[in-house]
Amino acid sequence: MKPSYILTSIFFFFFPLFDFGQNVITIDTLANGNIHIVTNGYECVIFSINNDSYHVGPSETKWMPTVEEVISCDNIIQNYINKKERKKAIVLGNSPVIHENYNKYVRQYMGYVNKRGKKILAVKFIWKDEVEKHEEFQWLNQRVDVIGGGTYFWQIEVNLRCKKCFNFNSD
To answer: What is the DSSP string of the chain?
Structure first.
């Protein structure tokens, strides 16, 4: 077998391991060090460890994930949200049904390492139409916190090592 065929075979064998389900269209580093990502399905920002709009506990440290870790995290969250037993808990009043509108949210990713040394991603989901209506949100630069927004604004945390979601909460 020729070396080029071997290389091609290896590429196509391993490629599915790295197919995260979203094609990244653009990645931009903003002036404040945050990373803005646009995929074919959604838009998000990874907060820099120097971003002052989010804080961690005294026994935790900030950590900035890679683009690959964020895309993997998003897939973990989507699987969690799509589980049948979660659907009923996520439908609240006239607010959007999260699992049916998953890609209509922009996301903010804030990483930290907990006191046990586990990498955690705290993720805020903000309804894209709300971001466009409210200039004060400045979601690419500062953490957006809303009280009483139903499922237009929700958050979740993910332990990347064990691929588990926790602390799901809709505002």
So the answer is: --HHHHHHHHHHHHGGGG--SS-EEEEEE-TTS-EEEEESS-EEEEPPTT-TT----TT-EEE---HHHHHHHHHHHHHHHHSHHHHHHH--TTS--GGGSGGGEEEEEEEEE-TTS-EEEEEEEEEHHHHHH-GGG-TTTS----SS-GGGEEEEEEETTTTEEEEEEE-
